[in-house]
Amino acid sequence: MGLFETPVVYSELQGAENLLADLESVIRTQRANSPGVQRSNIGSWHSDTDMLQWGGPAAQQLAHHAIALAKRMSHFLGGTADDLDWTVSMWANVTPQGGLNQTHVHPGNLWAAVLYLDMGKSEGGGDAGGNFYLEDPRFPLCAMRENALRMLGIDGKPQQVEVDFNLSRGNLIVFPAWLRHGVRPYTGSRERISIAMNIDARRQ
Description:
Elements: E1 9-12, H1 17-33, E2 41-42, E3 45-46, H2 51-54, H3 56-72, E4 84-95, E5 100-104, E6 111-118, E7 132-135, E8 162-165, E9 171-176, E10 181-183, E11 192-203
Helix pairs in contact: 1-3
C-alpha cells in the first residue's frame, strides 16, 4: 500500500489566452518601474509579493482559480473548505539566460502555486533548461549511505528524489507549500516569465 501521499495539481488553463496576455503585460510594466526583491531567485527579477494590488482584474481572476484548485485538494476536520477565509499573495518572476531559483519552501502557507506565461526561447530550438522541479519530501533519502537507492512505489516503478516538470504556456501547478522546489538554470535567449502564489486559509 502507499502511505503519506503528496497531492500535486498539474493543470492547464483552458481558453485563457486573453488572461495570459493581460498578466504578461502588467508584469512587463511593473518590471520597468520596480527593482524587485531577492528571495530564492538568482540572476532573475522577482517582484514584490503584492501583485494582487498592481496586477488588476487578471491577477484577481488567477487567484480565484488557484484557490478553487486548492479547495479541491483540501479537507478540514469538523468543517469544509468553504468554512475558511482563503487568501493569496502573488508575485512575478522574469528569468533571463542564466537565471534560476534555489531549492526552497513557502513556510506559513497551506499551498503554493506557479503559472507559466512565457517559456522563453532556446538557441536553435533545443532544450532551454529552466525546469521546475519538486523534491521528495522524505529529504533524508538522498543523504542515505547508499544514495543510489530508489524505493519502489505501489506501481512497481522506482521513486525519484526529484521530479522535473515539462511545462508550457498556461500550465498551473498547485502543491503543498512545505514541499521543497526550485527552478534549474535557464539557458534560453528570451526571458521566461512566470507567476508564483502562496495560498492560505484561516478559520472565520
